[in-house]
Amino acid sequence: MEELKKKLKEQIIEALNLQDTKPEDIDDNAPLFGEGLGLDSIDSLELMVLLERQYHIKVEDPREGRKILQSVESMAEFIQSKQPA
Amino acid sequence: MAAISPQPTFDGDILSAPLIHTDRNLLACIEPDYKPFIPGNSLRRMSRVLKMGLAAALKCTADSGLDTPGPIITGTGKGSLQDTEKFIKEIVEYKETALNPTPFIQSTYNSVNGLIALQQKCTAYNNTFVHRGFSFENALLDSIMLIQDGEPHTLTGAFEEITTEHFYIKSRIGFWKNESINSADLCQHLSPGSIAGEGATFFTLTGTPSAHSYAAISGFRMLYKPTKEKLNAALKAMSIQPDLIISGRNGDSNYEHFYKELDSCYPGIPQLGFKHLCGEYDTASAFGLWLAAQIIKTQQIAEQWFPQQQPLTTPVNSILFYNHFYGEQHVMLLLERV
Question: Does the CB of A42 have a partner CB in chain B at under 8 Å?
Answer without folding.
Answer: yes
